[in-house]
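Teaching assistant here, posting this on the class forum so everyone can see the example we discussed in section. The complex has three components, and the goal was to see what a joint structure prediction looks like when all of them are supplied at once.
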Amino acid sequence: MRESAATQSLHDLHPAPAGLCRKYVFSTDHKVIGRQYLAISLLWAILGGLSVFLMRWQLAWPGTPLPGSALLSEAFWDGESWLARSLVHGIIEPEFYNKLFTMHGTIMVFFVAMPLLLGAFGNFLVPLMIGARDMAFPRLNMLSVGPLIAGAVMLLLDRLAGTGFFVPALGGEPLLWQHLFWYFGHPEVYVIMLPGMAMALEIFPVFCRKPIYGYRLIIYATIAAGILSFLVWAHHMYVSGMHPRLAMPFSITTILISVPFAIMVFAMIATLWGGSISFPPPMLFALGVLAVFLLGGLTGIFNGSAPADIYLHDTYFVVAHFHYTLFSATFFGGFAGVYFWFPKLFGRLLNDTLGKIHFWMTFVCFNAVFIPMHVVGLGGMMRRIADPTMYDFLRPLQPLNVFISVAAFLLLLGQLPFVVNFFWGLCAGPQAPANPWQANTLEWTTASPPPHHNYDVIPVVCRGPYEYSAPDSPQGWIAQNQALVAGPATTAQG
Amino acid sequence: MQQTQAHAPTASSPTALPTGKLGLWWFLSSEIITFGGLIGSYTVLRLAHPEWAEAAQHLSVVIATVNTVVLLTSSLTMVLAFRAVDRQEDPAVRTWLGGTVTLGLVFLLIKALEWSGKLSAGMVPGVSGFWSFYYAMTGLHALHVLAGVVVNAVLLLVALRGRLRPVAQRVEMAGLYWHFVDLVWIFLFPLLYLS
Amino acid sequence: MTGERRHPNYVAVWYWLLGLALVSVSLSVLPLSHTFTVVLVFAAATAKAWLVALYYMHLRFERWLIYALALVPLVLFGILLLVLLPEIVSR
């Protein structure tokens, strides 16, 4: 293919980097950075999942040695290694259990959710979707991956080498730190939530072949949610010992914030209504976002009301709630994005059948884990305890704990089809065309994967991104950069 | 129709603002909240612990006042450098940038002397909440000053080599950051030394 | 984007800054009531900050978007302080 003069001059202005270092390690290309984030987040997801296996084993069968621990010799278990001290002959020590759930939360939020949703997809997609060549601050972008890796290393050092990067050394008032943490922590989880919703909102129109319902409404709702998110933080602290007077205003703001999110959910449902729906894996996961978030939002209202929260706080009801909300964004949203944009990211197609198996295993097992968890929480099981059978009043709940653990193991196993699919697709998947989903946004007008400079010709946007099922178009949809025609449409348009 | 887009260093965004300035103010926004969190915490705890005033007596108002004057003057030299860039007066740019770097280093030197005096007298961070905050706040601020000194020094070197003109807008950006660092000190000074 | 830009009298601003600083220090050594001193000193600090922001950082000549970027975190800081004060101080 002979390069046009335009593309040639583009290569001069925006030259592709040469050499391994420039190209992959110190790249300022947003697409490379996006892929780096994707790889990092998926790797950490595996570690986060591993901690789940260990935790649920302990909760279902407290005091039982881990499978495979018999394979290690007695001498090893009597030794001084970190593993031998954390697991007493294969049995999880309470201190180790504490470390496990701490790591699980930290890893999933900071090293999976954020890098996946914002780092990977944000970086990769935003310039493509607006027809730009790269991010506005490409060098800053490159620097942003570094701190993430540094933070991960610091966390590991803290765990394994006894350093004190994240060990608070100040005395002072414990409540102050709770306030500070949640002041920033709560907006943070909405920062995670919004890209997840956005994934679903991007994908629905494509597979319903109709525009989003209530575009402006969604935007205003998002802004309102963003503002409100700074005013709800103390709903994490109703029973912390903070002044009871603060419970009422924060209950009000928390219940208020359900309104914009409800608007978004209704807009999603209205988008589906009357659509010509198909169900490839991205659509299945996008529907998963909707269904799972809905349940999470409902339980959020219980938790947000101070009187109810007095009982629910620090029980597994809360754990169930935030897994519904976080999981919907991170996993269902994240996977929806991965399946949808994999062709664009890597130029190959994933296998649909494996994708569907992955979805159904994830969806069914996820609900099997977390619906009973509400019951367990209502029954009074506290968070962060290593052995529920220590408490008489929790013993009747133990069968539920076993059920949850088994479902959790199945959930972990259910990710294997994805791992297989991902690597098989990378290495041997069929070549992807520029627009395998017949989608309307700008990134699908360029090649899969896009060249270094993204677009040979910067696209001129002539219309919105929702021109699906257009009557005057032979292919049933009109691309954004297709010029408007003056006068009435004629059939000779061809 | 073909449209090529050069990577203009001050390319405008849809907000009709240079992207560099927007980006820097965005960054300063988050810095305000960071320091705000620290300052807010200190304020609240200080009000709850009136006995900390006794510890605060050990601080030298004289040293801090000198440092305040140093930093305020460095802000002046920085903005004068910026004005010289606008007027394309290259020698003046070098002079004023040099002045800013020097004053920044003086500030850090005085701070280091102040700290070493306190530490050797046994007022270490672990002694009380007051001292923890003192070292944390002035330490974080000093780190920011150091970063600013480095940035300004690099710009000075570029200017000395006569290569500043194509990237001249960086002086304004560095200036914004430097003024912010000064702003933080404007509040730290009365908070720690005059209350 | 250099070009026409207003450059106010920076040295005059500097005199004001120094003046306010010296006033603050003087106030702190006068035998006034503690609360009164603190209020005045912080008022002076706010005035200094205002001068630096407005003139040295050119906020006076910038668009509203920059103002918003500078103001929003201050509002958030105010909310944080408002909630923390009754919490921590009245214990």
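For the discussion questions: The helical segments of chain C are 10-29, 34-56, 64-89. Chain C has two domains: 1-57, 63-91. Think about how each of these relates to the inputs above.
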